[in-house]
Amino acid sequence: MGSSTFASMLELTFDHSPRVTAPIRRLLLFFSVFATALCGIAQDTPLISGGVGFFTQTNAGRTTYYPTIEPLLAAPIGPHILVESRASLFEFFTPNGGNDPGYNHSHFIGLTYLQGDVIASRHATLVVGDYLIPFNTYNDRLAPIWISNFQDGPLIANLNFTSTGSGLGGMLRGNAIQRDKYSIDFSSYYSIRSANSQFGASRGTGGRANLYLPERRLELGFSFNRLLQATHENFYGAHAWWEPRDTAFRLRSEFSRGKHAQGYWVEADYRTRAFGGLDSAVGRIEPVFRIQQTFRRDMLASDGLPSVNTQRADFGLDYNLPHNARIITSYARRFSSAGNQNVWETAIVYRFLFPAWKGK
Amino acid sequence: MKSKHLVFAAFAFAFACTLAVTAQESATTQTEQSKVCIRKQPAQKQEQGEHVFQQHCSRCHTAPDGFSPRIAGTVVLHMRVRASLSQHEEEMLLRFFNP
């Protein structure tokens, strides 16, 4: 689920009826018992975080509404173990179309990931369970609704060896080298195949390495994964982020290449400090721009990218309200041989972060 | 039958969230003075931790307005995993949240 755009989530909604299976119920029970047992540990109280938002998307004159909540639970067990999970719950209200003025609605509830983290050493963490695939940056770093600058994820977020964006198995990640002038972090994982409705995954392996230059505020990364079932395809990714010092300008970009398609996106956003700082009325305004292109290398469309070459430009204007709330608006024009489209999107998102229970 | 379970689970989750929000509001009133306010920390004392926050956490997201000190350790542990922090960076970040 991690990298899925709302459009692909919509497909999931229709293709698979959501189920709370017996293993899920046992896991939820385990969480409750385990979290209760931890009550009272200073500073280590389990937390609930995440985002709640109301989204609208107007495409070809049809407006879809989807209220969404993405709660995250993080519960430490002592100083070296953390259990964390994120879920996604949303309701879609879509127009019936034709001469019917009414709306149809459907819902989706699912776990995005559920993992246990073991701090194995000063520089490495072992992750087990259902985890987000660290391929490029969007899936495991930018996808939460309270982080994203746009409602829609980039098109190439679906170019991955698993359609769910998550793997089931183990991952080793951490900080390999830490110096004043640079740092290198890494992730490597192995996922088994699973057809479970909540923990769906493909058999595969891969990893990511990032180089960060703090003086230049530049991050460069390379990702790789290999599907180890059926056609055994390779996927490559690269990303570059630049955030110049003492500015609120950010430039982010990614490139992905699969066996049948490839693509990239570049996103820039900016907030000015010139009129009383970032917390002034003007400083809270955040213009955002993203350009993206996808290219189909052959017609064997085994991935989530459009079936024809596509270009899309997004122009956004976000407003960062006080108290962790944010208004996200954008207009996008999508160009392809299948037809050009306008997409208008608006949303208001609130980010919450609090202890899982009342303390002394 | 499955849809009943689903509806029940959704209601249970919503109820749990409501309880948690109520608890948070109550706790916020009591601990307002001790709330972690990231931007109000003395810069010199917290310089290293602030650098960790700016270079690792802020690369992806903005700072929250504040949060209860009871979850500071959990936040830092979570960021250690998410942002691939070293143990040293984790300690500096915790010190930044709790001067």
Describe the overall structure.
The complex is a heterodimer of chains A (360) and B (99). By secondary structure, chain A is mostly beta strands. Chain A has one domain: Beta Barrel (Porin), CATH 2.40.160.10. Chain A is 9% helix and 55% strand. In chain A, strands 1-2-3-4-5-6-7-8-9-10-11-12-13-14-15-16 form a 16-stranded antiparallel beta barrel. Chain A is globular and about 60 Å long. The N terminus of chain A is likely disordered. Chain B is mostly helical and 99 residues long. Chain B folds into 2 domains: 30 residues; 65 residues, no CATH class. Helices cover 63% and strands 0% of the residues of chain B. In chain B, helix 2 packs across helix 4 and helix 3 runs antiparallel to helix 4. Chain B starts with a helix and ends with a helix. In chain B, 33% of the residues are buried. At the A-B interface, strand 2, strand 3, strand 4, helix 3 and strand 6 of A face helix 1, helix 3 and helix 4 of B.
Question: What is this structure, in a nutshell?
Answer:
Chain A is mostly beta strands and 360 residues long. Chain A is 9% helix and 55% strand.
Task: Label this structure with key terms.
heterodimer, A: 360 residues, mainly beta, Porin, 16-stranded antiparallel barrel, 3 helices, 16 strands, disordered N terminus, B: 99 residues, mainly alpha, 63% helix, 0% strand, globular
